[in-house]
Protein backbone atom coordinates (compact mmCIF):
# COMPACT_ATOMS: atom_id res chain seq x y z
CA UNK A 1 0.00 0.00 0.00
CA UNK A 2 1.37 3.40 -0.99
CA UNK A 3 1.98 5.89 1.81
CA UNK A 4 2.98 9.51 1.34
CA UNK A 5 4.46 11.58 4.16
CA UNK A 6 4.59 15.34 3.53
CA UNK A 7 6.52 17.96 5.46
CA UNK A 8 7.69 21.54 5.18
CA UNK A 9 4.56 23.66 5.10
CA UNK A 10 4.08 26.69 7.31
CA UNK A 11 3.66 30.44 7.52
CA UNK A 12 5.94 32.80 5.62
CA UNK A 13 5.88 36.42 4.58
CA UNK A 14 5.49 37.41 0.95
CA UNK A 15 8.80 37.14 -0.85
CA UNK A 16 9.97 34.35 1.42
CA UNK A 17 10.76 30.71 0.71
CA UNK A 18 9.62 27.29 1.82
CA UNK A 19 10.66 23.78 0.87
CA UNK A 20 8.18 20.94 0.82
CA UNK A 21 9.19 17.29 0.98
CA UNK A 22 7.22 14.13 0.34
CA UNK A 23 8.51 10.62 0.95
CA UNK A 24 6.68 7.74 -0.71
CA UNK A 25 6.75 4.17 0.54
CA UNK A 26 5.06 0.97 -0.53
CA UNK A 27 5.67 1.02 -4.27
CA UNK A 28 9.06 2.64 -4.87
CA UNK A 29 9.90 0.97 -8.15
CA UNK A 30 6.42 1.50 -9.58
CA UNK A 31 6.45 5.26 -9.16
CA UNK A 32 6.47 7.11 -12.47
CA UNK A 33 5.43 10.68 -11.80
CA UNK A 34 5.71 12.57 -8.51
CA UNK A 35 4.35 16.02 -7.97
CA UNK A 36 2.40 18.58 -6.02
CA UNK A 37 -1.13 19.84 -6.36
CA UNK A 38 -2.74 22.60 -4.31
CA UNK A 39 -6.22 23.59 -3.31
CA UNK A 40 -7.87 26.62 -1.73
CA UNK A 41 -11.41 26.66 -0.31
CA UNK A 42 -14.04 26.81 -3.01
CA UNK A 43 -11.63 26.06 -5.82
CA UNK A 44 -10.65 22.93 -7.68
CA UNK A 45 -7.39 21.22 -6.88
CA UNK A 46 -4.77 22.30 -9.39
CA UNK A 47 -1.42 21.02 -10.55
CA UNK A 48 1.55 22.96 -9.22
CA UNK A 49 4.44 20.91 -10.55
CA UNK A 50 5.34 17.36 -11.49
CA UNK A 51 8.44 15.39 -12.36
CA UNK A 52 8.91 12.03 -14.02
CA UNK A 53 11.35 9.36 -12.91
CA UNK A 54 13.55 10.46 -15.79
CA UNK A 55 13.56 14.07 -14.61
CA UNK A 56 11.14 15.75 -17.01
CA UNK A 57 9.29 18.55 -15.26
CA UNK A 58 6.02 20.37 -15.71
CA UNK A 59 4.91 23.56 -13.93
CA UNK A 60 1.78 25.61 -13.65
CA UNK A 61 2.25 28.95 -15.39
CA UNK A 62 1.62 30.77 -12.11
CA UNK A 63 4.72 29.25 -10.47
CA UNK A 64 7.19 29.09 -13.34
CA UNK A 65 10.45 30.78 -12.45
CA UNK A 66 9.64 30.74 -8.71
CA UNK A 67 9.16 27.07 -7.83
CA UNK A 68 11.53 24.19 -8.52
CA UNK A 69 10.58 20.53 -8.28
CA UNK A 70 13.16 17.79 -7.84
CA UNK A 71 13.24 14.18 -6.76
CA UNK A 72 15.56 11.61 -5.29
CA UNK A 73 14.69 8.27 -6.89
CA UNK A 74 16.83 6.34 -4.43
CA UNK A 75 14.78 7.76 -1.55
CA UNK A 76 11.52 7.92 -3.51
CA UNK A 77 11.19 11.48 -2.32
CA UNK A 78 10.03 14.60 -4.13
CA UNK A 79 10.82 18.17 -3.16
CA UNK A 80 9.27 21.51 -4.01
CA UNK A 81 11.42 24.57 -3.47
CA UNK A 82 9.17 27.61 -3.38
CA UNK A 83 10.78 31.03 -3.68
CA UNK A 84 9.35 34.52 -4.03
CA UNK A 85 6.13 33.34 -2.45
CA UNK A 86 2.99 35.39 -2.95
CA UNK A 87 -0.20 35.56 -0.87
CA UNK A 88 -2.01 33.84 -3.76
CA UNK A 89 0.21 30.79 -3.20
CA UNK A 90 -1.62 30.21 0.07
CA UNK A 91 -3.23 26.78 -0.13
CA UNK A 92 -3.10 23.22 1.09
CA UNK A 93 -0.41 21.46 -0.91
CA UNK A 94 -0.85 17.78 -1.67
CA UNK A 95 1.87 15.40 -2.72
CA UNK A 96 0.79 13.17 -5.58
CA UNK A 97 2.31 10.11 -7.19
CA UNK A 98 1.34 8.27 -10.33
CA UNK A 99 2.38 4.67 -10.67
CA UNK A 100 3.24 3.08 -14.00
CA UNK A 101 -0.12 1.29 -13.75
CA UNK A 102 -1.85 4.68 -13.85
CA UNK A 103 -2.86 4.57 -10.19
CA UNK A 104 -2.85 8.00 -8.49
CA UNK A 105 -2.37 8.58 -4.81
CA UNK A 106 -2.33 11.80 -2.76
CA UNK A 107 -0.95 12.66 0.64
CA UNK A 108 -2.97 14.27 3.43
CA UNK A 109 -1.77 17.74 2.54
CA UNK A 110 0.32 20.43 4.20
CA UNK A 111 -0.79 24.02 4.72
CA UNK A 112 1.21 26.84 3.16
CA UNK A 113 0.24 30.34 4.24
CA UNK A 114 1.85 33.45 2.76
CA UNK A 115 1.13 36.70 4.56
CA UNK A 116 1.19 40.05 2.70
Structure in words:
The structure is a single chain. The mean pLDDT is 94. This protein has strands at residues 3-7, 10-13, 18-25, 31-39, 46-52, 57-59, 67-72, 77-82, 91-99, 104-106, 110-115. Strand 7 and strand 8 (77-82) form a beta hairpin. The chain is globular. 0% of the residues lie in helices and 57% in strands. The strands form two sheets. Strands 2, 4, 5, 6, 9, 10 and 11 form a seven-stranded mixed β-sheet that branches. It has a four-stranded antiparallel β-sheet with strand order 1-3-8-7, with no helix packed on it. With 116 residues, it is mainly β.
What's the short version?
The chain is an all-beta fold and 116 residues long. It is built from no helices and eleven strands.
What fraction strand?
Answer: over 45%
Shape: globular
User: Which series of helices and strands comes N to C?
Assistant: EEEEEEEEEEE
The biggest beta sheet reads: 7 strands, mixed
Helicity, as a percent range: under 10%
What is the first-to-last residue Cα distance?
A: 40 Å
By DSSP, the count of extended strands is 11
Number of helices: 0
Q: By helix and strand content, what is the structural category?
A: mainly beta
Based on CA atoms alone, the radius of gyration comes out at 13 Å
As residue ranges, the low-confidence spans are: none
Amino acid sequence: QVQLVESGGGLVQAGGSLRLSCAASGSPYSTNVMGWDRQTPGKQRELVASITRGGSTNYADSVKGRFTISRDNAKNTVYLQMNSLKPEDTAVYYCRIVLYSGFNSWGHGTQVTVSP
